[in-house]
Design goal:
alpha/beta, de novo design (two linked rop proteins), 2 domains, 12 helices, 8 strands, 14% strand
Protein backbone atom coordinates (compact mmCIF):
# COMPACT_ATOMS: atom_id res chain seq x y z
CA UNK A 1 0.00 0.00 0.00
CA UNK A 2 1.53 3.30 -1.10
CA UNK A 3 2.03 6.29 1.19
CA UNK A 4 -0.67 8.15 -0.76
CA UNK A 5 -3.13 5.32 -0.14
CA UNK A 6 -2.18 5.07 3.51
CA UNK A 7 -2.92 8.78 3.95
CA UNK A 8 -6.54 8.48 2.81
CA UNK A 9 -9.31 9.55 5.17
CA UNK A 10 -11.51 6.94 6.89
CA UNK A 11 -15.19 6.19 6.44
CA UNK A 12 -17.32 3.16 7.18
CA UNK A 13 -19.80 2.81 4.34
CA UNK A 14 -20.39 1.38 0.86
CA UNK A 15 -20.46 4.56 -1.25
CA UNK A 16 -18.71 3.69 -4.56
CA UNK A 17 -18.25 7.35 -5.44
CA UNK A 18 -15.78 7.95 -2.59
CA UNK A 19 -12.24 6.59 -2.16
CA UNK A 20 -11.45 6.26 1.55
CA UNK A 21 -10.17 3.68 4.00
CA UNK A 22 -13.00 1.53 5.28
CA UNK A 23 -15.20 2.49 2.34
CA UNK A 24 -16.26 0.65 -0.80
CA UNK A 25 -12.77 0.37 -2.34
CA UNK A 26 -11.21 -1.06 0.85
CA UNK A 27 -11.36 -4.47 -0.84
CA UNK A 28 -8.82 -3.49 -3.49
CA UNK A 29 -6.82 -0.55 -2.11
CA UNK A 30 -3.83 -2.69 -1.15
CA UNK A 31 -3.70 -4.06 -4.72
CA UNK A 32 -3.81 -0.72 -6.58
CA UNK A 33 -0.47 0.94 -7.21
CA UNK A 34 -1.72 4.39 -8.21
CA UNK A 35 -4.51 5.73 -6.00
CA UNK A 36 -4.74 8.82 -8.21
CA UNK A 37 -5.67 6.57 -11.13
CA UNK A 38 -8.37 5.03 -8.96
CA UNK A 39 -9.66 8.46 -7.96
CA UNK A 40 -9.78 9.53 -11.60
CA UNK A 41 -11.76 6.45 -12.57
CA UNK A 42 -14.19 6.92 -9.70
CA UNK A 43 -14.67 10.58 -10.64
CA UNK A 44 -15.64 9.50 -14.16
CA UNK A 45 -18.42 7.18 -12.97
CA UNK A 46 -21.94 8.22 -13.92
CA UNK A 47 -23.70 5.42 -12.08
CA UNK A 48 -23.34 1.89 -10.74
CA UNK A 49 -25.65 -0.11 -13.02
CA UNK A 50 -23.63 -2.30 -15.34
CA UNK A 51 -24.13 -0.08 -18.41
CA UNK A 52 -22.37 2.77 -16.60
CA UNK A 53 -20.08 0.74 -14.35
CA UNK A 54 -18.50 -2.01 -16.40
CA UNK A 55 -17.17 0.16 -19.28
CA UNK A 56 -15.10 2.33 -16.91
CA UNK A 57 -13.39 -0.59 -15.19
CA UNK A 58 -13.12 -2.70 -18.33
CA UNK A 59 -11.30 0.10 -20.20
CA UNK A 60 -8.85 0.50 -17.32
CA UNK A 61 -8.27 -3.25 -17.21
CA UNK A 62 -7.66 -3.41 -20.95
CA UNK A 63 -5.11 -0.59 -20.78
CA UNK A 64 -3.09 -2.38 -18.12
CA UNK A 65 -3.47 -5.77 -19.79
CA UNK A 66 -2.24 -4.38 -23.12
CA UNK A 67 0.75 -2.82 -21.38
CA UNK A 68 1.39 -6.17 -19.70
CA UNK A 69 1.35 -7.87 -23.09
CA UNK A 70 3.85 -5.32 -24.44
CA UNK A 71 6.19 -5.81 -21.50
CA UNK A 72 5.88 -9.58 -21.70
CA UNK A 73 6.84 -9.46 -25.38
CA UNK A 74 9.90 -7.40 -24.41
CA UNK A 75 10.89 -9.96 -21.80
CA UNK A 76 10.29 -7.60 -18.87
CA UNK A 77 8.58 -10.25 -16.78
CA UNK A 78 8.28 -8.52 -13.40
CA UNK A 79 6.82 -5.36 -14.90
CA UNK A 80 4.48 -7.43 -17.06
CA UNK A 81 3.23 -9.30 -14.00
CA UNK A 82 2.61 -6.03 -12.18
CA UNK A 83 0.54 -4.68 -15.10
CA UNK A 84 -1.48 -7.88 -15.36
CA UNK A 85 -2.27 -7.70 -11.65
CA UNK A 86 -3.46 -4.12 -12.06
CA UNK A 87 -5.64 -5.26 -14.95
CA UNK A 88 -7.02 -8.10 -12.84
CA UNK A 89 -7.92 -5.69 -10.05
CA UNK A 90 -9.78 -3.22 -12.25
CA UNK A 91 -11.66 -6.06 -13.93
CA UNK A 92 -12.52 -7.35 -10.44
CA UNK A 93 -14.02 -3.99 -9.49
CA UNK A 94 -16.08 -4.11 -12.67
CA UNK A 95 -17.31 -7.60 -11.75
CA UNK A 96 -18.57 -6.49 -8.32
CA UNK A 97 -20.54 -7.89 -6.59
CA UNK A 98 -20.30 -11.06 -8.64
CA UNK A 99 -21.37 -12.88 -11.80
CA UNK A 100 -24.98 -11.75 -11.53
CA UNK A 101 -25.52 -11.07 -15.27
CA UNK A 102 -24.00 -12.12 -18.59
CA UNK A 103 -22.05 -8.85 -18.70
CA UNK A 104 -20.66 -9.46 -15.22
CA UNK A 105 -19.67 -12.98 -16.21
CA UNK A 106 -17.83 -11.59 -19.23
CA UNK A 107 -15.72 -9.18 -17.19
CA UNK A 108 -15.18 -11.94 -14.63
CA UNK A 109 -13.66 -13.97 -17.47
CA UNK A 110 -11.42 -10.97 -18.23
CA UNK A 111 -10.36 -10.94 -14.59
CA UNK A 112 -9.49 -14.63 -14.61
CA UNK A 113 -7.56 -14.27 -17.88
CA UNK A 114 -5.45 -11.38 -16.57
CA UNK A 115 -4.75 -13.32 -13.38
CA UNK A 116 -3.65 -16.37 -15.35
CA UNK A 117 -1.26 -14.16 -17.32
CA UNK A 118 0.18 -12.74 -14.09
CA UNK A 119 0.51 -16.25 -12.66
CA UNK A 120 2.75 -17.41 -15.51
CA UNK A 121 5.65 -15.79 -13.67
CA UNK A 122 5.10 -17.51 -10.32
CA UNK A 123 7.79 -19.83 -9.05
CA UNK A 124 6.76 -22.31 -7.75
CA UNK A 125 3.86 -22.26 -10.20
CA UNK A 126 0.16 -21.92 -9.50
CA UNK A 127 -1.82 -25.11 -9.98
CA UNK A 128 -5.54 -24.93 -10.81
CA UNK A 129 -7.16 -27.88 -9.04
CA UNK A 130 -10.63 -29.36 -9.31
CA UNK A 131 -12.16 -30.66 -6.09
CA UNK A 132 -15.15 -33.04 -6.28
CA UNK A 133 -18.00 -32.47 -3.86
CA UNK A 134 -21.37 -34.21 -4.07
CA UNK A 135 -21.27 -34.58 -7.83
CA UNK A 136 -20.07 -31.03 -8.47
CA UNK A 137 -16.59 -29.57 -9.02
CA UNK A 138 -14.94 -26.74 -7.08
CA UNK A 139 -12.09 -25.01 -8.90
CA UNK A 140 -9.36 -23.59 -6.63
CA UNK A 141 -5.73 -22.42 -6.71
CA UNK A 142 -2.95 -24.45 -5.07
CA UNK A 143 0.69 -23.61 -4.46
CA UNK A 144 3.38 -25.39 -2.48
CA UNK A 145 7.08 -24.72 -1.81
CA UNK A 146 9.55 -26.56 -4.00
CA UNK A 147 10.69 -29.85 -2.50
CA UNK A 148 7.50 -30.34 -0.50
CA UNK A 149 6.65 -33.61 -2.25
CA UNK A 150 9.76 -35.10 -0.65
CA UNK A 151 9.27 -33.21 2.63
CA UNK A 152 5.55 -32.38 3.14
CA UNK A 153 4.82 -28.98 4.67
CA UNK A 154 2.07 -27.34 6.69
CA UNK A 155 -0.73 -25.80 4.63
CA UNK A 156 -3.42 -23.13 4.84
CA UNK A 157 -6.88 -23.09 3.30
CA UNK A 158 -7.60 -19.47 2.31
CA UNK A 159 -11.34 -18.75 2.37
CA UNK A 160 -12.75 -15.88 0.31
CA UNK A 161 -15.82 -13.85 1.16
CA UNK A 162 -18.98 -12.65 -0.55
CA UNK A 163 -17.70 -10.35 -3.30
CA UNK A 164 -13.92 -10.82 -3.59
CA UNK A 165 -12.87 -13.95 -5.45
CA UNK A 166 -9.74 -16.11 -5.34
CA UNK A 167 -8.01 -14.07 -8.07
CA UNK A 168 -7.83 -11.22 -5.54
CA UNK A 169 -6.24 -13.43 -2.88
CA UNK A 170 -3.09 -14.38 -4.76
CA UNK A 171 -1.11 -12.33 -2.24
CA UNK A 172 -2.07 -14.93 0.37
CA UNK A 173 -0.20 -17.60 -1.53
CA UNK A 174 2.84 -15.34 -1.75
CA UNK A 175 2.85 -14.62 1.98
CA UNK A 176 2.30 -18.26 2.84
CA UNK A 177 5.17 -19.27 0.57
CA UNK A 178 7.42 -16.82 2.41
CA UNK A 179 6.67 -18.77 5.59
CA UNK A 180 7.23 -22.17 3.98
CA UNK A 181 3.49 -22.98 3.83
CA UNK A 182 1.38 -24.44 1.05
CA UNK A 183 -1.96 -22.79 0.22
CA UNK A 184 -5.29 -23.63 -1.31
CA UNK A 185 -7.25 -20.47 -2.21
CA UNK A 186 -10.96 -21.01 -2.84
CA UNK A 187 -14.03 -18.94 -3.67
CA UNK A 188 -16.75 -18.92 -1.05
CA UNK A 189 -20.01 -20.79 -1.65
CA UNK A 190 -22.29 -18.73 -3.84
CA UNK A 191 -19.40 -17.03 -5.62
CA UNK A 192 -16.91 -17.68 -8.40
CA UNK A 193 -16.10 -21.31 -9.08
CA UNK A 194 -17.63 -22.86 -5.97
CA UNK A 195 -20.98 -24.18 -7.26
CA UNK A 196 -22.94 -24.30 -4.02
CA UNK A 197 -25.34 -21.69 -2.64
CA UNK A 198 -24.37 -19.69 0.41
CA UNK A 199 -26.19 -21.50 3.21
CA UNK A 200 -25.01 -23.12 6.46
CA UNK A 201 -25.02 -26.57 4.85
CA UNK A 202 -22.47 -25.44 2.26
CA UNK A 203 -19.74 -25.90 4.84
CA UNK A 204 -19.45 -29.19 2.94
CA UNK A 205 -17.53 -27.26 0.26
CA UNK A 206 -14.92 -26.14 2.78
CA UNK A 207 -14.72 -29.67 4.20
CA UNK A 208 -14.07 -31.04 0.70
CA UNK A 209 -11.34 -28.43 0.22
CA UNK A 210 -9.52 -29.18 3.45
CA UNK A 211 -9.71 -32.92 2.81
CA UNK A 212 -8.27 -32.29 -0.66
CA UNK A 213 -5.37 -30.50 1.01
CA UNK A 214 -4.87 -33.37 3.44
CA UNK A 215 -4.66 -35.81 0.55
CA UNK A 216 -1.96 -33.94 -1.35
CA UNK A 217 1.56 -35.41 -1.24
CA UNK A 218 3.05 -31.92 -0.66
CA UNK A 219 1.01 -31.41 2.54
CA UNK A 220 1.40 -32.74 6.06
CA UNK A 221 -2.21 -33.69 6.83
CA UNK A 222 -1.64 -33.14 10.55
CA UNK A 223 -0.65 -29.49 10.06
CA UNK A 224 -3.44 -27.72 8.20
CA UNK A 225 -4.82 -24.34 9.16
CA UNK A 226 -7.30 -21.90 7.65
CA UNK A 227 -7.55 -18.16 7.08
CA UNK A 228 -10.72 -16.31 6.10
CA UNK A 229 -11.56 -12.68 5.35
CA UNK A 230 -14.96 -10.95 5.67
CA UNK A 231 -17.61 -13.62 5.08
CA UNK A 232 -14.65 -15.98 4.91
CA UNK A 233 -13.87 -14.91 8.48
CA UNK A 234 -17.18 -16.46 9.47
CA UNK A 235 -16.66 -19.51 7.25
CA UNK A 236 -13.27 -20.32 8.76
CA UNK A 237 -14.82 -20.42 12.23
CA UNK A 238 -17.76 -22.49 11.01
CA UNK A 239 -15.36 -24.97 9.39
CA UNK A 240 -13.21 -25.10 12.52
CA UNK A 241 -16.21 -25.95 14.67
CA UNK A 242 -17.63 -28.44 12.17
CA UNK A 243 -14.40 -30.27 11.34
CA UNK A 244 -12.06 -29.55 14.29
CA UNK A 245 -10.06 -32.74 13.84
CA UNK A 246 -8.69 -31.36 10.56
CA UNK A 247 -8.21 -27.67 11.37
CA UNK A 248 -5.21 -27.04 13.61
CA UNK A 249 -5.13 -23.20 13.65
CA UNK A 250 -7.47 -20.44 12.48
CA UNK A 251 -7.14 -16.78 11.47
CA UNK A 252 -10.49 -14.99 11.17
CA UNK A 253 -10.43 -11.44 9.78
CA UNK A 254 -13.88 -10.04 10.55
CA UNK A 255 -16.76 -12.51 10.28
CA UNK A 256 -20.39 -12.50 11.45
CA UNK A 257 -22.34 -13.86 13.28
CA UNK A 258 -20.39 -15.77 15.90
CA UNK A 259 -22.86 -15.44 18.76
CA UNK A 260 -22.76 -11.81 19.81
CA UNK A 261 -26.24 -10.35 20.23
CA UNK A 262 -26.33 -6.69 19.32
CA UNK A 263 -28.20 -4.19 21.45
CA UNK A 264 -31.31 -2.62 19.91
CA UNK A 265 -29.29 0.48 19.06
CA UNK A 266 -26.45 -1.49 17.46
CA UNK A 267 -28.92 -3.59 15.48
CA UNK A 268 -30.67 -0.46 14.19
CA UNK A 269 -27.32 0.97 13.01
CA UNK A 270 -26.40 -2.37 11.46
CA UNK A 271 -29.69 -2.52 9.53
CA UNK A 272 -29.29 1.09 8.42
CA UNK A 273 -25.77 0.40 7.08
CA UNK A 274 -26.96 -2.61 5.10
CA UNK A 275 -29.92 -0.71 3.73
CA UNK A 276 -27.66 2.12 2.57
CA UNK A 277 -25.65 -0.50 0.69
CA UNK A 278 -28.85 -1.81 -0.94
CA UNK A 279 -29.42 1.59 -2.57
CA UNK A 280 -26.69 0.87 -5.13
CA UNK A 281 -27.54 -1.46 -8.01
CA UNK A 282 -24.67 -3.07 -9.90
CA UNK A 283 -26.58 -5.22 -12.38
CA UNK A 284 -29.07 -4.36 -15.09
CA UNK A 285 -30.60 -0.86 -14.93
CA UNK A 286 -34.07 -2.29 -14.29
CA UNK A 287 -32.83 -5.24 -12.25
CA UNK A 288 -33.34 -6.07 -8.57
CA UNK A 289 -31.20 -4.62 -5.77
CA UNK A 290 -27.75 -6.22 -5.72
CA UNK A 291 -28.04 -6.35 -1.94
CA UNK A 292 -31.64 -6.79 -0.78
CA UNK A 293 -32.78 -4.43 1.97
CA UNK A 294 -33.12 -5.87 5.44
CA UNK A 295 -34.93 -5.35 8.72
CA UNK A 296 -34.18 -6.06 12.36
CA UNK A 297 -36.54 -9.04 12.17
CA UNK A 298 -34.73 -10.48 9.16
CA UNK A 299 -31.37 -10.08 10.88
CA UNK A 300 -32.62 -11.89 13.98
CA UNK A 301 -33.90 -14.71 11.79
CA UNK A 302 -30.51 -14.86 10.07
CA UNK A 303 -28.79 -14.98 13.46
CA UNK A 304 -30.86 -17.96 14.54
CA UNK A 305 -29.89 -19.79 11.33
CA UNK A 306 -26.21 -18.84 11.05
CA UNK A 307 -24.69 -17.95 14.43
CA UNK A 308 -21.97 -20.30 15.62
CA UNK A 309 -23.65 -20.29 19.01
CA UNK A 310 -26.96 -21.44 17.52
CA UNK A 311 -25.22 -24.16 15.47
CA UNK A 312 -23.57 -25.54 18.61
CA UNK A 313 -20.04 -24.93 17.29
CA UNK A 314 -18.44 -22.54 19.81
CA UNK A 315 -17.26 -25.17 22.29
CA UNK A 316 -15.78 -27.22 19.42
CA UNK A 317 -13.38 -24.44 18.40
CA UNK A 318 -10.51 -25.57 20.60
CA UNK A 319 -7.55 -24.97 18.27
CA UNK A 320 -5.49 -21.73 18.36
CA UNK A 321 -7.53 -18.84 16.96
CA UNK A 322 -6.42 -15.34 15.92
CA UNK A 323 -9.23 -12.84 15.31
CA UNK A 324 -8.63 -9.47 13.61
CA UNK A 325 -10.91 -6.57 12.75
CA UNK A 326 -11.39 -2.81 12.83
CA UNK A 327 -13.28 -1.22 15.71
CA UNK A 328 -15.69 0.56 13.37
CA UNK A 329 -16.85 -2.42 11.32
CA UNK A 330 -20.36 -1.71 10.01
CA UNK A 331 -20.85 -5.20 8.54
CA UNK A 332 -19.32 -7.56 11.13
CA UNK A 333 -19.49 -5.92 14.59
CA UNK A 334 -16.40 -6.44 16.71
CA UNK A 335 -18.71 -7.71 19.44
CA UNK A 336 -18.22 -11.02 17.63
CA UNK A 337 -14.57 -11.01 18.71
CA UNK A 338 -15.40 -10.20 22.32
CA UNK A 339 -18.06 -12.90 22.31
CA UNK A 340 -15.48 -15.52 21.31
CA UNK A 341 -13.01 -14.24 23.91
CA UNK A 342 -15.68 -14.51 26.61
CA UNK A 343 -17.22 -17.81 25.50
CA UNK A 344 -16.08 -21.36 24.91
CA UNK A 345 -12.65 -22.80 25.80
CA UNK A 346 -10.59 -20.60 28.11
CA UNK A 347 -7.27 -20.80 26.27
CA UNK A 348 -6.05 -20.58 22.70
CA UNK A 349 -7.72 -17.37 21.51
CA UNK A 350 -5.94 -14.18 20.50
CA UNK A 351 -7.27 -10.96 18.97
CA UNK A 352 -6.24 -7.65 17.47
CA UNK A 353 -8.72 -4.78 17.10
CA UNK A 354 -7.58 -1.67 15.22
CA UNK A 355 -9.15 1.43 16.76
CA UNK A 356 -8.98 3.56 13.60
CA UNK A 357 -10.20 1.01 11.05
CA UNK A 358 -13.38 -0.53 9.69
CA UNK A 359 -14.41 -3.80 8.05
CA UNK A 360 -11.45 -6.21 7.97
CA UNK A 361 -9.07 -3.40 9.03
CA UNK A 362 -7.73 -3.22 5.46
CA UNK A 363 -6.05 0.06 6.39
CA UNK A 364 -3.57 -2.09 8.34
CA UNK A 365 -3.32 -4.91 5.80
CA UNK A 366 0.45 -4.44 5.52
CA UNK A 367 0.74 -5.32 9.20
CA UNK A 368 -1.86 -8.00 9.84
CA UNK A 369 -1.53 -9.93 6.57
CA UNK A 370 2.12 -11.06 6.89
CA UNK A 371 1.73 -11.32 10.68
CA UNK A 372 -1.17 -13.74 10.18
CA UNK A 373 0.90 -16.13 8.09
CA UNK A 374 3.82 -15.91 10.50
CA UNK A 375 1.37 -16.76 13.30
CA UNK A 376 0.02 -19.71 11.32
CA UNK A 377 3.54 -20.96 10.66
CA UNK A 378 4.31 -20.85 14.37
CA UNK A 379 1.09 -22.62 15.36
CA UNK A 380 1.29 -25.26 12.64
CA UNK A 381 4.98 -26.05 12.89
CA UNK A 382 5.62 -25.54 16.59
Amino acid sequence: MTAETQALEFTADEDPFVVKHGGFYRRWLSMIEDVDELRSLVASLEGTTQDKWIPVWSAAGRRHEAEGDRLAEAGEDLDARREYLQAKTFYAIGRFPGEITAEKRAISDDCARAYRKASRYLDPPLEVVEIPCEGKTIRAHFRAPRGSIDAPVAAVLVMCGADVFKEDRGWAGEMAMAEGLATLVMDGPGTGETPFPYEPESVKAWIAAIEHLAGRPEVDADRIGALGISRGGYSVMQLAGTHPEMVKAVVAIAGHPFGYRMSDGELAEFVEARNRRSEFRYGEPDGPPSFPPTTAEKELESFSRWALSELGLVDRITMPVLMINGKHDHLAPIGNIYYMLETGPVTGKEARVYADAGHCAFKHYQEWAPASFAWLRDKLTG
